[in-house]
Amino acid sequence: MKKLNVFVTMLLLVVGGTVFAQEKQVKKCAKCTPEQRMEMKIKHLQQALSLDDKTTAKFAPLYKEYMQELGSCCAKPEAKQKKADRTDEQIIQDMKDRFAAQQKMLDTKTKYFDKFQKILNARQLEKLFAPRQGKMAKQECRSHQAGPKKPGQKCERPCRKECCQLPK
């Protein structure tokens, strides 16, 4: 009985400690200003791209400028009607607006690619301009949750893991 009480107490301490640690991490990020988030992102990129101090001094202001210009490319959300209530003309206009915003973003990325190319090498550029991966993209495919597949065995939804790649 005494061993059971000690075990339950230890279990509660371990579980409770992890819960409190996670809350602090979420609160820390929620209080950040946009400038602080940008600084954290630049520090993260500095480590990911293995930048030295000299390169970081050139990279940081250019990256801030790049992100501001990319942000201006996005269409501002407006009070839109429900999808079912829109007319055909409104749907076509929304699609044209979306295409225009995507083209503006592509033009901005191309413009800054040339600028970043003067500072960074090819591998660093590849990491910087890699497609953004959201929360869903970071999750592994369902078939990898139980462990990696055997070579040649296909996944339900192919992902970028080596076992999902078809043999050449």
Describe this structure in words.
The chain is mainly alpha-helical and 168 residues long. It is 63% helix and 0% strand. The protein has six helices and no strands. The protein has helices at 2-30, 34-48, 53-73, 88-117, 122-128, 135-138. The chain is flat, with a radius of gyration of 24 Å. The relative contact order is 0.06.
Straight-line N-to-C gap: 61 Å
> Sheet with the most strands?
none
Q: What's the helix-strand series?
A: HHHHHH
Structural class: mainly alpha
Low-confidence parts: 135-143
* Portion in beta strands: under 5%
Number of strands: 0
Shape: flat
Helix content: 55-70%
Mean pLDDT: 75
Compact overview of the structure:
It contains 6 helices and no strands. It is mostly helical and 168 residues long. α3 (53-73) runs antiparallel to α4 (88-117).
Keywords:
168 residues; mainly alpha; 6 helices; single chain; flat; 0% strand
Task: Note the topology.
Layout lengths: L1 H29 L3 H15 L4 H21 L14 H30 L4 H7 L6 H4 L30
